[in-house]
Amino acid sequence: MSGKLMPNVELSPLQQQHYSTLELLTVHPEQLKFVGTLQEILCNVSSSVHPNVVTFEGEVVGFFLIDTHYSDDYNFCQGAALGLRAFFIGQAHQGKGFGKAATAALKPFLNQHYLNARQIYLTVNCKNPSAYACYVAAGFEDTSELYHGGAAGPQHILRLALM
């Protein structure tokens, strides 16, 4: 990592006060194939898929879902591991270190909010090397397997040990 300091972001479950700035989050048009629109993402929220935000100085700069039943839908997910879905930093906030800071803060956040979780999985599109590098820099390991069920093509399967 370079000598630049990462911004001090906070990860937290989505709360009512976040909605006004959450609605302003968009991604670059070329990133839509990887993450979808916020409206599409929010349709996945359920009792087992929890919405979370990335904030900086009180402003929502990113969003992600934690899927507590990820292994029910993805056979590459071992045991009762969590799944990280729809992680993105808003277009207006990209290139400022928020993605790196948020992925670095993910493990402590999960250890605090999901006490029994031992690991978390995610898939990242093979055509998205910036996201892949960000996850690996945060400690995710590539399982050397590909998931072929994504709408935008093959995806690397990554996992992070928790605790």
UniProtKB/TrEMBL annotation:
Coiled coil: none annotated. It comes from the Bacteria. GO terms for molecular function: acyltransferase activity, transferring groups other than amino-acyl groups. Residues 9-163 form the N-acetyltransferase domain. Keywords: Transferase. Signal peptide: none annotated. The keyword Transferase applies. This is Acetyltransferase (GNAT) domain-containing protein. It comes from Vibrio xiamenensis. The lineage of its organism: Bacteria, Pseudomonadati, Pseudomonadota, Gammaproteobacteria, Vibrionales.
